[in-house]
Amino acid sequence: MKYIAEIESRVAGIPCIIGVVGYVAVAGDSRADSSDDYYGYSEWRVCDYRGRTAPWLEAKLTHAEQSRIESEINQHFN
User: Fold this and answer.
1) Which of 11, 40, 56, 71 could disulfide-link 26, Cβ–Cβ 3.0 to 4.6 Å?
2) Measuring CA to CA, which residue among 77, 16, 15, 14 is closest to residue 46?
3) What is the pLDDT of residue 41?
């Protein structure tokens, strides 16, 4: 799969690559219907260190790690 960005990260302490499939940044709008409409969104996959998708590693993601990865993606693009 072709990614628009590959970001080094960790999941459950294991080094990995976050393959960003899509990213949309949105300026905050108080009339937004959802948080995606207000903040924007990204679509990404957890990959092993060789760049292959790693569903076994993605299954270990905690909510806190998902938030951290979203922040890493935002920092990468901004």
Assistant:
1) 40
2) 16
3) 74
pTM score: 0.81
Instruction: State the Rg of the chain over Cα.
Output: 13
- Residues with Cβ within 8 Å of residue 59, at least 6 apart in sequence: none
Residue matched to tokens 């969104």: 41
Measured distance CA(36)–CA(32) in Å, rounded: 8
CA distance 9 to 67: 12
Rounded to whole angstroms, the Cα distance separating 1 from 18 reads: 12
Average pLDDT, 10 consecutive residues per value, the chain (78 residues): 94 96 75 58 91 95 95 90
